[in-house]
Amino acid sequence: MALNPKITDWRGQQVWLVGASTGIGRATASRLHDLGAKVTVSARSAASLASFTTEHPGAQALPLDATDAVAVQAAAQTLLQRHGRIDLAMYCAGHYAAMQSSRFDLTEALRHQQINYVGALNLLAAVLPPLQRQAAAGQAAHLSLVASVAGYRGLPNALAYGPTKAALINLAEVLYLDLAPTGVGVSLINPGFVATPLTAQNSFHMPALITPETAARAIVQGWATGEFEIHFPKRFTRLLKALRWLPDTLYFNAVRRAVHV
Fold first, then answer.
1. Which of 155, 154, 166, 152 is closest to 117 using CA atoms?
2. Which of 60, 109, 136, 199 has the fewest CB atoms within 10 Å around its CB?
3. Which domains can be identified in the chain, with CATH numbers?
């Protein structure tokens, strides 16, 4: 059963992707552009955004730092003044650096928090009022947050990253409970390993690694079928979802064995 209004026709849809200079965000923006959406991309790198708009005629760029609440609010107002609505807003900004407790770095941990979680809150503050107004008027309104399967349960080397993604998962669930009755769609995107500049830092084998383009297709398909949680690739994410139900002793032992294989 669909949990959200299905999005199957992107022609003329006003979509805003925050964190779209590389990786999943950029690939999804490209996919939506190809499907006829009116795409606006935001990120800190003005040069990367400029290259996107060059490659995708008609797309717009609004450079910003997602951790700057004033800048996010100003960008949202710019979009609303230009187009009158935001049909879908997607938060895909992210930061990752491996961390263990033996090398805990408070500054780096807080950087994860600011980019991965607080930035999403900044987007909420900017887009929730217009999305709710649109839904009340019977118009399209959808909010999508990119978290990670790393937020399901604790994983090695994810001391800074994992908790921020767990927070996003919980945030999306609460938002769905609040907003679904109003007509605002809420989706949670939990990727497995995707070949991006962030995962390129990993020195270990990444099971079921996929391209950003494959991830983008899975995301768009999830929106088309009205899913709440869009997770992929399923041959990997279903295993991690199953691990969530293990008792703590079994889970911790299984992870330790996997790490030392």
1. 166
2. 136
3. 14-236 (3.40.50.720)
